[in-house]
Structure formats: structure tokens, C-alpha cells
Amino acid sequence: MRLSKGENVFKTVNYIVLILIACSSLFPLLHLIALSISDSTAIETGKVSLWPAGFNMDTYSLLFNGTPIVKSFSNSVVLTVVGVAFCMIVTTFAAYPLSRPHFYARRFFTLAMIFTMIFSGGIIPTYLVIQSLGLVNSYWALWLPALVSTYNMLLLRTYFENIPSEIDEAARMDGCSETRLLLQIVLPVSMPVLATLSLFYGVAFWNIFLSMLIYINDTDKQNLTVLVQKMIQSQSVLQQSVTVQPDDQVHVVEEGIKAAGVIVLIAPMLIVYPFVQRYFVKGVMLGSVKG
């Protein structure tokens, strides 16, 4: 079908706008990469823009040898992997019964969970509860309050509701229990939305910042986000933890180290996203529209 002249103009303008938006998002990342691998002299003189000037990996050497970034990175990995596992298990077991039409009072429980999206307990009451449970300075203070995201639960529940009822009926005729139905039939056909929700939870736990500052006082347990923020805010982390020789520090500038820290922070999500991208749009669309 041939497009009219107006449609071609509209399509061209759309492409131009989208390309400009993509470039505006990509340029800061390219600038950070260039800063992190450029020579310190070029950085100080402002010669680095989108392309590195004088390839140099000293910033990464100082970052990994002179700061506790490896420990913070491992903390972020543990926090994210365990948190995503717990959240997906609890979210699944919350969404599945609410998606079954024969579940008693499912409307009441659904509305009760939606209520938490509108009204929350607040930071101070939540902190007092966490403190009374003895969870301060423990990752459980971060995992337990985030076990179920109501939005993600509703997304998964709607996806379960869209699964043809004939599949359930055929499984029950063969003597399939509810647990087996969920684990062997419902979950395998729900991989798109499960991958999407795992990505949602993963990004949330990887980037967790305020809750980490509130509940975790031990610096050995703090994650990569907090460490990078401290590096950007001041050089105290580098000055206290540096282990390289002073003569070697002269060739590394503050901006380069900060850029390298940000790259290490965002790199895991950039690496993981392409592997779940094919599930991402499909999972959101199928789980958000009922019918």
C-alpha cells in the first residue's frame, strides 16, 4: 500500500524526532565511556567529548585497586539475585490464586493490595517496624518490604487470566493438581511476562539507594550505587581506600574515576537487557490488556 505525501512527511518527521531522542540518550553514555578511558591530560584540558583522547586504562586500575568497588559490586549482585528470586516467588503465588475465578474473596484481596499503591505507611513507621524486627543492618530490611510490587502482581495476574481456560480444564481432567498446574503448565507459557517482571525487580534492586542509606549502616554491606554516589560527591572514598603508590595517582583525574565508576554501575543492566528484550514488549503488552 502506497503512502500518501502527508503520511510520508509524518513518517519522516517521526524518524527524525526518534533519532534525536536516541542520540540525546546515547551521547551522555558515550561521553562517560570516553572520559573513563582517556588520558588524564586530555581530560583536564577539556579535549574529551564523545571519543577518547589518548587511550588509558589507569582510571579502571585505580578504581578496582584503590576503592572497595569489588566488594560493593558483589553486594549488589547478592542483593539483586536473591531479591529477584524472592520477589518472583511471592509475586507468582500472590497473582495465581487471584487470577482464578473460583478463588474466594479474590476481589477483596485485590482491592486490599491496590490500597497499598495509594496509601503507604511512610518512612518513619516503616523504619520503626524494621527496627523492632531487628532487621536494621540486614539485607532483609530491603527484601521484605519489596517482596510484592502491587503493579507487578496485577500485571502477572492479568497475564494468568488471559491463558485459555481450556488448558486448565484439560489439565484437571487428567488429574492435575493446582500446584502442578501452576509449575508445569501456567509458568512455562508465562515466560515473557516473568522475564519482564524479573527485569523490573532486578533494576529496582540494582539501583536501590535511599533504603540502603536508611537501613544499612555497615559500609561493608553497602551496594555499588551508594559507593558511586560517594565517589561523585567527594574524593574521601579514594583518599581513604587508595592502595596504589602516590606517584601513580598524579596521572589519574577525578572526572575519569567518577566516569569509570558510573560505567561499572550501569554496565550489568546494559549487558542483561538485550537477553530479555525479546520478552520485554510482549510481556508488558500481553499482561496489561485483558481480553
From TrEMBL:
In terms of PROSITE patterns, this protein maps to: ABC_TM1, PROKAR_LIPOPROTEIN
Q: Does the keyword Cell membrane apply?
A: yes
Alphabetically list the UniProt keywords: Cell membrane, Membrane, Transmembrane, Transmembrane helix, Transport
Which membrane topology term applies here? Multi-pass membrane protein
What InterPro entries does the annotation carry? MetI-like, MetI-like_sf
Q: Name one GO cellular component term.
A: plasma membrane
Cross-referenced Pfam families, in alphabetical order? BPD_transp_1
Q: Which SUPFAM superfamilies match?
A: MetI-like
Its chief place of residence is membrane
Gene Ontology BP terms: transmembrane transport
Q: Which CDD domains match?
A: TM_PBP2 (cd06261)
Cellular localisation: Cell membrane
Family, according to the entry, reads as follows: Belongs to the binding-protein-dependent transport system permease family.
Question: Which protein is depicted?
Answer: ABC transporter permease
